[in-house]
Amino acid sequence: MGKLLFLTMLTSSQIKVCVAVAKKIIELFGDKHEIYIPVDKDWEPKVKEMCPEIKCITFQRPSEELQRQFFARTGKKKEDVFAEICEQYNQIWCNFDRAEVVNRMASFYKIIFNHLIKFHPIVNEIVKQVAPDFIVTSFHVSTPLGIDRNIPYAMLLTSSPTFFGHEFLPPPMSDLPSEPTLENIKIWEKFFEEAYLLEHFDMKERINFWLKQRNCPNLDERNFYLVESPYLNISLYPKEIDYNPNLVKLPGKWLKLDSAICNPLPEPIVIPEKLKNLPGKLVYVDFGNQPFIYLYHVKEVLKLLPTLKHRFIVCTGSIDLKDADNIYTEKNIESLSALQVADVVICHGGTKIITDSFHLGVPQIIIPLFGDQIDNGRRIDDKKLGIRLYTSEISHQVIDEAINKSCNPTLMKKLKEISNRIKTENGLKNVCLEICKFLK
Ligand SMILES: *[C@@H]1O[C@H](CO)[C@@H](O)[C@H](O)[C@H]1NC(C)=O
Ligand SMILES: *[C@@H]1O[C@H](CO)[C@@H](O)[C@H](O)[C@H]1NC(C)=O
Question: What percentage of the chain reaches a pLDDT higher than 70?
């Protein structure tokens, strides 16, 4: 028997990917191994439902108390603050004000770094308690915890490969064109120097200093984000949108995972009665499980849906939204259930939902907000395998056109082929077998 511990920063994408890997391991090896995933109270029941065999260790999300204090101190409403931030992000990406982008990015990394510092003692305690044989880390800036106790670990990257930081990759979150033409490489380099070398230099020094004190390897020169593993590296990204493997050569071995879906799929959602007899495409709208962050987004998009001659299933999270004849809303929808029946998906472009959509061959309209959603949206649009929109350009006409274009037979055929390839190759099994080699 072996003990396997997954460590995440509690993003939905990371948790769902880890659960899919865990489920597959259980499918392959039964109860041979013990699998642990630390989560907060909100996630515990969801993880239990997805996979009852996983042992959840609950802890309090370090940002919770800070947020509570912030809102108590300022008297501001959470929704308003997030709406404001979203609006700012939208302005930045639309107008592409380089200085603003750089500025924003510095604050984004500051938040991630602060998270890392706050997670560290909590997670460290959990590593001690579980004493695993192997750790799978899916952190943003990863600290391979357990390194000081000689516990081997895998790095599981569940965000865009731009975060590798490579000369033939656009800099992460830059929203720059993604093909490595001479001209683009020049723009990338300029952006990289301004945004990552100059602006972030101090912070990177601080992160490296902090990592060093914990026996962790440094972040290398280009790479701002990850500490790879000398044992096993895994990257989640479908081959068809991956970045030029002949140019982007990473040292060592990287296992590629197209998608993280474990069979059997959840039951497809039953098409709601009110939508059954309406004309138009069936569109699934999902902006993830952090509705506050996407409030502005969701509202902007939703406002338009009643005017369109299509049918919508919308996952609203905890936002109360007005219903309309052609819209069915539900607070929590299992995206895999909805994607099985949808003609098109409108989403934020996070790595989990885009990989799920490719797996199931569903055309995507991506309206990204921040982080690697920007890179994913840009990449998929550049590869002509989906459509990326900016919130501020959204209108009745734009969405209508995007839905029409998504249902173009040539694109649908291509997506079907991709889906068949992914299902046949079964990369998840391969990844699980590699992980289990480290378990006795
Ligand atoms: C993981 O990736 C890093 C960087 O690409 C590489 O140096 C290392 O050798 C890789 N690990 C393995 C086991 O190949
Ligand atoms: C979308 O397709 C429908 C039906 O084919 C058509 O009536 C509508 O004009 C199209 N809209 C756009 C913006 O192309």
Answer: 87
